[in-house]
Write a structure and sequence with these properties.
This protein is mostly helical. The protein has 7 helices and no strands.
Length: 197
């Protein structure tokens, strides 16, 4: 039997994509929480309402500010969901991260209100900012966090990237909660019921 001459057959190796190893949990938390710092700029929308036409100021305070802040607070989480969803270890982690991001945002916003906007504010004003306002931010972000967790589960099951449609109603619910709170505070303040003198 004659052996065939010629070059040996070419073997084609399929490239193996390196698996992206998730970073340590503290790194994910740091990215997610520090990302909320960018949302502090949205707080200036509230501050700008002071010298504006009352109608425009009310719209900004009750509608625009909540809409912007509620998407800015978890912005880093949204980014990671779109680009690195496998970095998260579960839907509960995402919900807790959303609440923690809101806590960081609220703390920075409180510092702005207490030391810059109203440095002579009363003790009751400071207490109100540190308790009620902080709780409001955390509640609204937790509601949106449930939507982000649902988005993560969708990506885990079906693949793909971040899709606002899947968690949009949770975002709207967070904005409504925040806007209703702002509207209530404004009404109570204008009527003299909420007075920090």
């Amino acid at each position: 039997m004659e052996r065939q001459s010629g070059p040996p057959p070419t073997i084609i190796y399929e490239p193996i994509e390196p698996r992206s190893t998730p970073p340590l949990a503290p790194m994910v938390w740091l990215i997610a929480i520090v990302g909320s710092v960018g949302g502090v700029g949205a707080a200036f929308i509230n501050n700008s309402t002071i010298s504006m036409d009352p109608t425009v100021g009310i719209l900004l305070f009750v509608v625009a500010a909540p809409a912007v802040e509620e998407i800015c607070k978890p912005l880093a989480i949204v980014f990671l969901l779109d680009k690195r969803p496998h970095w998260f270890r579960g839907s509960t982690e995402i919900i807790v991260l959303a609440a923690c991001s809101a806590l960081v945002f609220a703390t920075l916003e409180n510092l702005l209100y207490i030391f810059v906007n109203n440095p002579d504010g009363s003790a009751s004003f400071v207490t109100f900012r540190l308790t009620i306002c902080t709780a409001l931010h955390m509640l609204a972000s937790t509601v949106f966090g449930f939507g982000l967790a649902k988005m993560w589960r969708h990506i885990q099951d079906k693949g793909g990237h971040f899709d606002i449609d899947i968690c949009f109603k949770y975002y709207v619910a967070a904005v409504i909660i925040h806007g209703a709170y702002n509207g209530l505070v404004m009404t109570l303040a204008l009527s003299g019921v909420l007075n920090f003198e």
